[in-house]
């Protein structure tokens, strides 16, 4: 309609301006104007397709898989693209799906909780003849020092101690138990890589989590390439942890190329790879082998320091159950601790690409919708959410909520279509939009498109792993059109930073066209 009005405006203008032209010339002029106006959108679309084709024909992608899709938010139609239905590994851009589904199923005001419970009896002297339980309900932020809206570990522990004191408990004769049974024991993705599991970003998601299930290893740098820098500390101290240090020193500026190898619940860890030469302390992060046990152990130490005597018996609920110990007696809930709201957790997740948070959301979705705190139950609900909104999920292969598995596969048309569904959903769109990194401003987009017309205009979640780079998001273009987009590159031959530059150029083309 706007286009038709514009055509008549031009016709009226040309009549006034060229009234002296003869009828034949005026008709030719009018026909030319109509053709130009009607053809103009196709010209813009062709320009964008040319930019996409130039990207796809780049020699660095000769042996890899490349896919791009730009989708009209209003109609759902593909505006421009290349290999739009090719399934590729999306890496962490997959988080947009999980975070949106969490907002949909749980609500943006949802809060995870953690309870303190006891069984047995408290006698007149304040002695608990029973056990203290830290019962987790999947909170991934409990005791986090990485999230400014969460309280740090020692602050949380102090609140736990005060709650125990307020309950009249002065001495504990039984166990202090970390209870993670709200979720099942499937704590890591079945298709996650071995080299990821011992590192902080591959930390398992338990029913009870603590300090994002990570710890720090401090090395003292040395001055010679090829020498082994010694480990000088682990923070906090993880009981039973054995670190076998095989790290070597590399040239100055080579960065963190250290990996920690070890499975969940396994306390022997191999530390391999390189860190730079130097004279300072160099820190890497690992995944706590058994967070529920560590939480119980840490609380016991804290209680002793605060003058509450314990039996010094600590355990995880699953370990005691496997040992056939009876733990099904009636429990008393005497303190409940709550996480920040889901809206803030989603924002942190998408801004900083936190795998643990996504895996917690996935399991909580599964628990609420399908009664099981497993990845499979959560993924089933996510598929249902997308399909009921009209998305075709054929060939959409999800194995986790965070994108950490290289066996996840999605097409860019599916990813861009999912974004369209999300931002058209009034229930979740505002919270979701606020969680997305913004070009030249925030998250993984903060250094992208600086000094261009698209600064502050592109909202996108990045994804990256070895030989994988992706971006998925939405743009209100220079001409005011709302589009969602996704671009994925797998198995390129150049550096990942170079792919990022190529994708940045393509984002600018989408914005300007």
Low-pLDDT ranges: 1-11, 16-21, 35-41
Radius of gyration: 28 Å
Q: Can you tell me the overall shape?
A: globular
Count the DSSP helices.
13
The major pleated sheet works out as: 5 strands, antiparallel
- Helix percent band: 25-40%
Strand content: 15-25%
Widest beta sheet: strand line-up: 2-1-19-18-17
Task: Count the beta strands.
Answer: 19
Distance between the termini: 21 Å
- The helix/strand class is alpha+beta
Mean pLDDT: 93
Structural description of this entry:
With 513 residues, this protein is of the alpha+beta class. Helix content is 35%, strand content 22%. The protein has a 5-stranded antiparallel β-sheet, sandwiched between helices. The longest helix is centred in the N-terminal third of the chain and has 34 residues, at 23-56.
Essential attributes:
513 residues; alpha+beta; five-stranded antiparallel beta sheet; globular; disordered N terminus
